[in-house]
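Folding follows sequence. Below is one example:
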Amino acid sequence: MSAADSVARVIASLDWEGDPGPAPLAGPEADRLRTRLGDGAARWVAGATEKSLSALHAQIQDALAPWPVIRSFAQHVLIATLLGLAGHEELPAAREAIHHDLAEDVVSRDVPLSDITEALRTVQHEWLSLLIDAAVRLGQEGVGVVPELATSVGATMDAWIGAATEAIVEERRRVYQAEQVRIRSTVESLVAAAPVDVESATRLLRIRLLGWHLGCAIGSPPGGTVERRVLEGVIQGFARFAGTDRMLRYETTAGTVHIWVTAERPPRRPAVEDLHVPAPLLVGVGEPHPGTAGFRRTFLEASDALDLAARVGAPGGLCYGDAALAILLSRNEERARWFVEHALGELAGDTPEMADMRATLRAFFDTKMRIAPAAERLYLHRNTLIHRLERIQTLLGHPITERSAETQAALMLADLGSSLGSAAT
């Protein structure tokens, strides 16, 4: 007699003994099982399901588990197991066959996948033990197919564990995407100054909206490409410098990443140099501000700083606090060009000599108007730098130390070059 015939005899011998017996199976799958394998197999599935669930109760002791759904799932899988053993591939393991309520419960309560796998292995062990008992009762013929029973039941359960895992992962993806949509909508409402429920938004965003916020915008010039690992390095560096791990992230379809770090007191604002931003990435860093209004304000400041950094080609980026006046003035490029001409005089000229003079003045301001550090940065002799600064004062028409804020803003705006030039045409 073939192994298949012997397995068929084992299945044909199945029935459930006990008083009282389990509730009869119901539904189309149960009817299919009775049609294919008889009433005894249906009673056996009902009894084996209850026995395996008792073992599962003792193992996990989870009063909140959806036991009716678990029972239906166990019956479905056991019917599929018997039909498979009998050569009927009518209930293949598939993600769609997993009851949605089961996947939803696992995800909503964050049950580890390892716990699900362990539970299904417990059920597998109970079923296989019962099948082996039935095989042994047939004598030598039944004992001979025990390895085949073990292999078949194990393979079937492997397939259903895979299907359950896929269903749970898909449910997690669905929940995550739904949450991400709500997060994006809440962030967009906040930056648009639309009214939001602060308590609900705090729970959703997982940051304290009434705390202090510091924003950073990260992007690259048009055409630039950046590896994700490089971007993540800048993001983590920003959070580390600010001294907090409470961070919210928002990405745009234009490729800009916005970060907020939140703290009980004003976070430490890094300088661009502290972030070690690799090209072609650029950052714009806002100032720390409190509350929902501060959440919006630091976002706008960081965005404006990033925009200006991209336009002037500032290495690494800009901090709003260092460029606020230039950002404000550059809102209107025609008037910005007029401001540059007024503040710099002849120094605003579009010649290599004037460009060199402006670079000298910028270095002087960057080194806090100290001769020695500026000369070192420019690779100039101290006396050469002094002569250049005297020439610059003549071009400006006033001492360099006068109206220094306006002069520095005009120098930054002058770097807009083609943008300001196009506004004049």
Remarks:
- Residues 418-425 have pLDDT under 50 and may be disordered.
- The chain has three domains: 3-176, 207-327, 341-424.
